[in-house]
Amino acid sequence: MALDIRGPHSSIRIEDLDEPMLELPERLEIDSPRFDLFAKRFAEAFSIEGDELKQLATEVFQLIDSFRAMKEAQLDSLGMIQTDDPVLRASAFDEVVRRNPVHQKLEALLACCKQAVSDGLPLTCQPT
Description:
- The chain is an alpha+beta fold.
- The chain has one domain.
- It is 56% helix and 12% strand.
- The chain contains 5 helices and 4 strands.
- It has a 4-stranded antiparallel β-sheet.
- Helix 3 runs antiparallel to helix 5.
């Protein structure tokens, strides 16, 4: 079973409850009650709108920011970025992190949230 999350112009799919994205709030020690709804209500249809949707967008942004920081620290500790130039380091980190599937899915979810907020529409979640 999967959960399709639809905004007004785009959508994403969470394939199952073992998806790494769902583990991030706990791994990163971030309180995210709206984001946690995806796991808690995985098998049911629901929507997120209004202030809850705005809060979800904030939570997803925080998860992206913390995920990027965690990945950058990992890459740095592994010595995978070999330059001292701060601009080149930032560019290299950005390129590597953006290719990460978890980061891509979080970015897609944030886009869905922003579109829904902008259009004044709910984010709908439907198990498939």
